[in-house]
Write a structure and sequence with these properties.
224 residues; alpha/beta; 29% helix; globular
């Protein structure tokens, strides 16, 4: 992958209810940082837009630290507008909703009931496709407790809706897969095929994903 510029989103995002409370998820950032490490080892130039994950990004990558989904979106759009990237891999676990209003002060814990109105956060991959129509776009689709057929079906639908080049589907309800683990089981899906990667290290999953991207971008080198 020498000569390729790859932009990766990784880790969770936070959506604050007040100055001390937020909505988020258990994402560790391990899958995104594994992708960054493998891409660097294959010769790519890597930038990571990174939420508050626990995994350490590789020191040779350019790291842009963010907290909210809006901050991640702004960072991705800014990078795509100011640099020529070949690939965007959206591996971050972004919060899907945010409060309509963030309270300026700490919400009292003495309330008998607390009602928070939420609205959807922006979809980063959809905005990225608008900003950079020709970029190779790879996204992740996390679901829970689905059959393989259902999981692949939902991921394929998302692939076509956004015009993705590649989508990685995994069931976070399965043991050893998803958030915080060092392993993962995924289906790698494009418009041609669905490839099952059984439970292996996230490093191995990253290598399998990057190999497909490499071959897609360099079809004359498929045997290398």
């Amino acid at each position: 992958m020498k000569g390729l510029k790859i932009l990766i989103t990784a880790g969770p995002t936070r959506e604050y209810l007040d100055p001390v409370r937020f909505l988020s998820n258990p994402s560790s950032g391990k899958m995104g940082t594994a992708l960054a490490e493998e891409a660097l080892s294959l010769g790519a130039d890597v930038t990571i837009v990174y939420g508050r994950g626990t995994a350490l990004p590789p020191t040779k990558a350019k790291v842009i630290n963010i907290e909210t989904t809006k901050e991640m979106l702004d960072a991705v759009v800014n990078e795509l507008k100011n640099e020529k990237y070949d690939v965007l891999i959206a591996a971050a676990a972004c919060a899907d909703y945010r409060p309509i209003n963030k309270e300026k002060g700490k919400i009292s814990s003495k309330q008998a009931e607390l009602v928070i109105n939420l609205i959807p956060t922006p979809k980063i991959i959809e905005e990225a496709r608008k900003v950079s129509p020709d970029i190779y776009l790879c996204a992740f689709k996390a679901e829970s407790n689905l059959s393989a057929k259902e999981l692949i079906g939902r991921a394929d639908k998302r692939l076509k809706e956004v015009g993705l080049d590649l989508i990685i589907a995994n069931d976070i309800g399965k043991p050893g897969s998803g958030f915080t683990t060092d392993t993962n089981e995924v289906f790698i899906i494009n418009n041609r095929e669905s490839i099952h990667v059984p439970l292996v290290s996230k490093k191995e999953v990253a290598y399998n994903i990057l190999e497909i991207i490499r071959k897609d971008l360099n079809p004359s080198n498929v045997n290398q």
